[in-house]
Each structure stands twice: as C-alpha cells, then as structure tokens.
Design a protein that fits this description.
Layout (H helix, E strand, L loop, with lengths): L1 H19 L9 H14 L4 E7 L2 E8 L6 E6 L17 E3 L2 E3 L3 H20 L7 E6 L7 H7 L9 E4 L8 E4 L2 E9 L3 E2 L9 H18 L14 E7 L5 E2 L2 E8 L7 H16 L4 E9 L2 E2 L7 H4 L7 E2 L6 H6 L3 E4 L14 E3 H15 L1
Parallel strand pairs: 3-6, 3-7, 7-17, 8-16
Antiparallel strand pairs: 1-2, 2-6, 4-5, 5-18, 8-15, 9-13, 9-14, 10-12, 11-13
Helix pairs in contact: 1-3, 1-9, 3-9, 5-6
C-alpha cells in the first residue's frame, strides 16, 4: 500500500511540474519544457535524447535500448489558450477530491506524467525498455508542424507501431474522422446597389454555394462505415458586404467537413469544388485549404494485444481528431490512448481524475515491459 501511495504522489508531482510550464499554443514557450523533458528522459535511461524545432515549435525525442526503436509513445506538450472561468491559476495544479485541475492536465500532460512515472518504475526495477522511442511533440493544438517534421525525418525510420496519447479515459481508440476545411473567395467589380441587376454579387453567389454544399452533405449522409456515417458538413462563416447601397467587391465562405475512414477525400473535395463552381458562375473563385488532417483507423489491432491485454478487446471510436492518422499514412500502425476525458479538455478548470492517471501509469508500464 505504501508503495502505491508513493507512486501516486510521484505522478502528481510530475504533473504539477508539467502544468507549471506555460506551453499555450499560441503564446507559450514549448522549448523550456522540451529541454526539461530531455533531461528527465536522459535520467530515466534513454540511450539518445534530442530536442528539435519545427516552424518555431519544439519537441523532445528519445530512444531506449540497444535495438532500433519499433514502438513509439507520443504525447503533445502544447496546450490550448486559457479558457475563461478558471477558479485558480491554470498553471498551478490543484487537487480537489480525486481530481487534479490545471491547464493541460487531461490534454495531454497527464499522459506525459504517466509515461515518465512508468519509465521511472521500470528503471527502479533494474531493467531498461528496449526498442522503444518517446516523442513529446509540440504544435498539436494548432498547426501540427512537429509530428509532420518527425514523420518526414530519419527519426521515424523503423517504427512499426505508435501509441498516440489523447484523453480517452485509458480506453483504446481505433477510429476517428478526419478534418478538411477551406475558405472560398469570390470577387466582382462591385458598385452602386442601383446596378444590382447587371453587376454580379459575390455575397449572394457564395450564399448559393453554401446552400449547395449543405445539400451535398445531406446527399452523403449514408457515406462511410457504420457508426461514422456522413460528412459532418458545416457552413462556418459567410463574410462580405459594407452597406445596404454597395454591391460588395469581395466575399468569402468558410466550411469544413469530417470524412470517416475509408472515404475518398479527394473525390469529395472534387465534388465540392464542382458544386461551388456551378453556384458561383460567372464569378471566379479562389479556393484555399485552411486545415486538413487524415481520418484514422488502426490497421491491425491484434498486433497491439500483447501491449494492452484485455483492454484491446474493447476498442472505441473517438469523437475528436488526433494526429494518429498521420502515423498510419506513414505506415506506422497506431492506437490512441491516454488518461482524462475529452469533455474536460479545452475548458475552464480542466482536470484529470487521479484514478485514471494512476491507471495510465500501469498501462504504460505494461506497454514498456
């Protein structure tokens, strides 16, 4: 019992240290935490440790054992900005009953603390993990530059599997939708509203395009596998116009969709572009992709069974997106798992349950064994 209590205290202390680093994205400093994590991983027996930068963001990569790594543990070090309504300093971990409150406690500094504690317990047992790599990456919450950089580098060579840490309540996540978003601009000579019968209006043209895209979403409601049907077509914004007596010279439409695994995204984009082109004629349009993240599906869940045991027999679909799809696209099979719940992420007084944090330590200890 005393040993369990000590482990619980240690993982809380690790989480408190992590939360104290301001890694908000944007606005925070990932480098300081990345360098601290490199020191921690070296002390825990890493064979190699590296801090690398990607488009102004920072990550820590470490390898363990004498063999080239085949398994990767990945968690992101950045957090979202502080939402309004925090009842205490968001960079100070506060325990209330069985909950540990603080910015990033669930998403995903709790997972980092659990991984570090599992590595510490493994080292204390007198043995070191082999063929294991750890990536604590930056820029997950905004641009995703760090994982893209990692996957395009030699660091990812030889990896066969990855556990991508996000708040799943320590359940094994095996599927989620992708994300695609675009901003469409249309231009016109504009002019006085008395010329509205002869001068095309980009705002009304894009309004027609918005309705046409929504109709496309309706037609695709049965597209995709069971449990993830439809495109989740969302008309997010329609911008333009100056005054009631001015024909606007420019307008913009922003939309997004979330295709399921197995859906041909390029075909859907082509259909969407044809739909918008017809709706906005004779105006020309400028199509700008503003966000994209691939859908995710684990390819061979059975290969993860030795790592998770019975836990792998009850996989779950995820309602949120992760970077796991990028690993699978690269040929590195992946699952998503971590302490915390997505319902607590990105909100005031974010928290992780202490029980789940301790469970995550046990899960990661089993994985690295």
């Amino acid at each position: 019992m005393q040993s369990c209590m000590q482990a619980s205290s240690r993982v809380q202390e690790r989480l408190a240290e992590l939360v104290a680093f301001d890694t908000r994205n944007p606005g925070g400093d990932e480098r300081a935490l990345a360098e601290k994590l490199a020191r921690d991983l070296t002390a825990l027996g890493a064979r190699t440790t590296e801090v690398f930068s990607s488009s102004g963001h920072h990550s820590t990569y470490a390898s363990f054992g004498t063999q080239d790594p085949t398994l990767l543990l990945n968690a992101h070090i950045d957090t979202v900005p502080v939402n309004s309504g925090y009842s205490a300093d968001p960079l100070v971990l506060v325990r209330r009953g069985g909950r540990l409150h603080g910015l990033g406690s669930a998403d995903t500094k709790g997972a980092i603390a659990a991984i570090l504690e599992a590595l510490a317990e493994r080292k204390a047992s007198g043995s070191a993990p082999d063929s294991l790599a750890v990536l604590f990456s930056g820029d997950e919450e905004l641009g995703g530059a760090c994982v893209r950089d990692f996957l395009s580098s030699e660091r990812s060579r030889g990896l066969a599997r990855a556990i991508v840490c996000e708040p799943t309540g320590c359940r094994v996540g095996v599927r989620h939708r992708g994300v695609y978003a675009a901003r469409i601009s249309a231009t016109s000579p504009g002019g006085h509203s008395s010329l509205a019968e002869t001068v095309p209006n980009p705002l009304t043209a894009l309004a027609r395009a918005a309705v046409a895209l929504d109709d496309l979403g309706v037609r695709c409601r049965d597209l995709g596998p069971e449990g993830l049907r439809g495109l989740c077509m969302n008309i997010a914004a329609l911008d333009g116009g100056l005054a009631f007596n001015i024909i606007p010279a420019r307008a913009a439409l922003t939309f997004s969709m979330r295709p399921a695994p197995g859906v041909d995204l390029s075909s859907i984009i082509e259909q969407a572009q044809d739909t918008v082109r017809i709706a906005t004629a004779p105006l020309t349009m400028d199509w700008q992709t503003i966000a994209t993240n691939p859908a995710f599906e684990t390819r061979d869940l059975a290969s993860f069974a030795p790592l998770f045991g019975d836990r792998a027999r009850s996989p779950v679909d995820l309602s949120f997106g992760t970077e796991a799809g990028q690993f699978v696209e690269k040929g590195i099979d992946a699952v998503v798992l971590g302490p915390g719940r997505v319902e607590q992420a990105h909100k005031a007084d974010e928290y992780v349950d202490l029980d789940e944090l301790e469970e995550a330590v046990r899960v990661f200890l089993q994985v690295i064994h």
